[in-house]
Amino acid sequence: MRAPVSWLREFVAIPSDQDGRAIAEKLINAGLEVETVETLGAGVIGPLVVGHVVGIEELTEFKKPIRWCQVNVGVEHGGVRGVICGARNFVQGDLVVVALPGTELPGGFKIAQRETYGKLSDGMICSARELGLGDDHDGIIILASDHVVGEDAKPIVGVGEEILDIAVTPDRGYALSIRGLARELAIAYDLDFVDPGLELAQLPAPSGTSVPVACSSEDEQACALFTLRTVTGFNPGAPSPAWMQKRLVACGMRPVSLAVDVTNYVMLELGQPLHAFDVNKLQGSIRVGHVADGTVIETLDHVERTLNRDDLVILDNRGPIGLAGTMGGFATEIDESTTAIALEAAYFDDGSVARMARRHKLSSEASRRFERGVDRVLAPYASARATALLLEFGGGDYVGMTAVEAPLEPTVIDLPASQAGEIAGMQIHTTTVIRLLQAVGCEVDASTDVLRVGVPSWRSDITDPANLVEEVIRLIGFDEIPSRLPTAAVGHGLSTSQRLRRRVGMALAARGGVEVLNYPFVGEAEFDALRIAPNDARRSSVKLANPMNDEQPFIRASLLPGLIAAAKRNLSRGSDDLCIYELGSVVRSGMGAPVARPSVTQKPSDDAWAGLNAMLPIQSTSIAVLLAGQHSQQTWSTVARNYDWADVIEIAMNIAHTTGADLRVGPGNDESFHPGRCAQLTVSGVEVGVAGELHPRVIEALGLPARSCALEMDFDEVIARSASSRPAPAVSAQPVAKEDIALIVPESVNTAAVTSSIIEGAGELLESVRLFDIYRGQQVPQGSRSLAFALRFRASDRTLEAAEIASARQSAIDLVIQRHGATLRGA
Amino acid sequence: MSGPNTSFDPKQVSALSAESVDAVVADALGAIAGAASLADLKEVRLAHAGDRSPLALANREIGALPPAAKAEAGKRMGIARGQIKDALDQRESDLQALRDEQVLNEETVDVTLPVDRSPMGGRHPLTTLMERICDVFIAMGYDVAEGPEIEADWVNFDALNVPPDHPARTMQDTFYVESPDSGVVLRTQTSPIQIRAMLERDVPIYVVAPGRVFRTDELDATHTPVFHQVEGLAVDEGLTMADLKGTLDHFAQEMFGAGIRTRLRPSYFPFTEPSAEIDLQCFVCRGESISNPDKSCRTCGSEGWIEWGGCGMVNPRVLTAVGIDSSRYRGFAFGMGIERTLMFRNGVTDMRDMVEGDVRFTRAFGLES
């Protein structure tokens, strides 16, 4: 809502020393967000005067027609001056705005006497655009004839006018009007306020020359008040007055014609949307109601709209002629030949208009106001004001008003007098509560401790005691509220998941990982590039109805597409070596069955709550890592080494070590990964993820560096299977015995299996086993490899005897031989 | 060569004379002093203190002396061997020190060489900032509450007193899942976590709720369709706006320094009543830049205050929707954008830096923001 300060001053006597910024400050403190304070023609410096065009000579020898004008700017400004002008929208005798030499216009454009088109031009005749007053005007400004030659033109054209631009929150529909803002200012400045909305304009008695257009309502719920005032004999060519046009422009609206301008002007002033019908285009009477699904109407914006039976429409005998409170129809639009006008002013239910505006994706000045609540009783007052303006500037006869109205049901709220103070946390006297409620327009019956508060008709947002409390506290000022700390309950600290997410993040970052937070939006192309099979769950089945990008309508079921996109972005920016990770939410199922919307007037039942949750896809936390490029570069102290599959498995182990999960690595199988370099990750026998080198075709399709590696694990599964507390180990101080063994094992047997057998065979004396060498070649048969292990034996209570060690070692060897077809190397 | 001196031979025994021993000692001390290296000294030790050194050989002759002379000769020999040993030890110690000085000097390295064998990574500053905020509230007795990103619109809107036709529900703002009628949305705010907390926990409730939220805004320097908020909720008997203000002041001071204040401006949120915008006193200029062109402040644009978030007293309608008796309990709630907080707190100038995952951006923050 743009509000010119001069307009506000018309309704409330704001002290003259208060400029736009000071006024804005008052409104902000009252809860109205003033976004900007703009000064019209802020760049105009120096004299701007009213000039009288006394002579025009057309110069035709130039490429475009030029006028050599004689303009009288008053004796005090040098009398008649010659001015060159390119505009053609004025005639001899018009009053215009002249910038005299020495004036500076917006953009630093200085006016001076100058030779041009063979004449000495001694000033400039100005357009609105040149004065920084708006973009809509072609041609120069022509002033009303009642101005005095030589007079200062700045206030006439609005130079220096301050305009407040206010972002009105959805609860304050009344503030979408000069009337509503003026009331707030009257409260803020503690001034008297005479409500211009409830003063009925004086209209002549109905002329009786014809009958006013009749009206009726078929839906009193949605339309509790509908009025029509009819004017005939109206002069369609009469212009709207300059002051009205100026204000409309200042408020961001384009002047169109007298009838349209008046409806807009009164809407801005009082907050009542109005609509004018051309009576001669109407068929019969007007009614408010509904039409069958599929009925079509062409609206003023020349869009054909297919109506729904829930739409609230205005109809004549032929059919729909407007969307109630949203936009009128094209067929009954007033135009340059309209001489009879039916002026609609009505109260439409906020929900009906909101649904319709949303359904037709049509937001108008009218619908914005109705959605936020229009004054229930304002319609006849606003239409009287508008009719008076039409008659004043367009002539014609007032024929009368027709109206239908449902019984008025005022809102009355019982408010304990102490409640505002209890909620604010400070003493507020009952007299203060009453005074402030009265200032916003309430009627207060204070005969008991529970105040009986009648809510004013323009405050449909006030429905509960809490709304009244807010009014009182905001008008006292939030600055008055003391600051105090509550004694909070005893908390429980972080949950296991919250704590472990932090720990894992720190562990990954400490080993070089960089966290990325990717958008969750994915699409078919990414699934295809990752070779994900058509029915795989990672082709998410959770799809957005209105995605940002039609190529990515799905919500991720895997973090890998996002990580890959982030990797590519980094690679394109020259970060060649990447270890990036994300810990984030993914979907693990499709959507559940939709359920009915529970009431909000009581707690949902356990079943209803369970149903709401079952409607959602299963969502859990996933962790993924992507490695690309070099693990280390060639430097004075390191040799170059690329990241490989073992790095990513080590990271998986590191995550498990951090959470306390007993992670096992086995051969895996995943379409996105290299079939021979993919590990399945399990905890307690449950698969929790996959790690390894990405499939070469995936790497190729995605343009990643060769041998890029990745892992992804279900973090919730990992922590669910992590030890909640860890038993302390027995740390023996007895001497260690070290034994090395080398076993020749078929290639088909994996190291983890051999290691398990060694641990099992060696028994409890074995403290640790570590693979330290792999050998293929001479002395080792084709298809086998030699695995060399370092074994450490130790007892908790004694130095081990040589025979014990030898026996344990032999048991280990025997089991590997027996289980895996191995042979002891060197035996 | 020598054995028990069964047939007494005065000439052989002369090696045990005082003169002879002195001469041997002098010879040894000279050799020790002359040893230039530890290797030389090792040879000197062998020659003058070894099994075949003159003293060792002479010592063997003691047995041949008459009993009366044995004690004296033995004593003399002991002193001589002691002298030589001390000299050897001293010289060895000196030479070792000398060698260390030389070798360690040769081993000097340039300790300013770049050491980046295992470069540090970094956690996203939005993550660490959210953790930091949560920690402030954990210290005040709050728990950290969470909820799903894909949420029922009843939880995201209805229960928060945003009725189905409310302007905030327009298609322009909200991502709908599957179809606009599915009843499922990407949560547009962290406030649905309030509803979950109130339905799933017992009063009194003190929770802080960080999370990722979604709105259909195109990514540009100041907007992103995916961003983060943190939300606080307290529901207890007797809570007032004064408690809300005190909590926000404490929070501001923990995050931005002692003495930093907050200011509340009336506003509108469907789920709080009264509702307010939270302004944070500028922690850089502390208000000194207001109307003071000489001290203009980039952080607050010389306004003295920074818009931080929204807050208010929980609307009794919200309490009703979750079955909390609003005549007995009151609540307050507040929330703020994490991206916005990081922008003014850490001087991030472009939203895209926090979104794109450029490792150079994140690594610069290390493990803290």
UniProtKB/TrEMBL annotation, chain A:
Its EC number is 6.1.1.20. One of its GO terms (cellular component) is phenylalanine-tRNA ligase complex. Its cofactor is Mg(2+). Residues 42-154 form the TRNA-binding domain. Keywords: Aminoacyl-tRNA synthetase, ATP-binding, Cytoplasm, Ligase, Magnesium, Metal-binding, Nucleotide-binding, Protein biosynthesis, RNA-binding, tRNA-binding. Residues 408-483 form the B5 domain. Coiled coil: none annotated. Its main location: cytoplasm. InterPro entries: aa-tRNA-synth_II/BPL/LPL, B3/B4_tRNA-bd, DNA-bd_dom_put_sf, Fdx_antiC-bd, Fdx_antiC-bd_sf, NA-bd_OB-fold, Phe-tRNA-ligase_IIc_bsu, Phe-tRNA-ligase_IIc_bsu_bact. It holds the Pfam family FDX-ACB. It is found in: Cytoplasm. GO terms for biological process: phenylalanyl-tRNA aminoacylation. Residues 732-825 form the FDX-ACB domain. Tetramer of two alpha and two beta subunits. Belongs to the phenylalanyl-tRNA synthetase beta subunit family. Type 1 subfamily. This is Phenylalanine--tRNA ligase beta subunit. The lineage of its organism: unclassified sequences, metagenomes, ecological metagenomes.
From TrEMBL, chain B:
One of its GO terms (biological process) is phenylalanyl-tRNA aminoacylation. Pfam families: Phe_tRNA-synt_N, tRNA-synt_2d. Its cofactor is Mg(2+). Residues 127-343 form the Aminoacyl-transfer RNA synthetases class-II family profile domain. PANTHER family: PHENYLALANINE--TRNA LIGASE, MITOCHONDRIAL, PHENYLALANYL-TRNA SYNTHETASE. Tetramer of two alpha and two beta subunits. NCBIfam families: pheS. HAMAP family: Phe_tRNA_synth_alpha1. Belongs to the class-II aminoacyl-tRNA synthetase family. Phe-tRNA synthetase alpha subunit type 1 subfamily. This is Phenylalanine--tRNA ligase alpha subunit. It comes from freshwater metagenome.
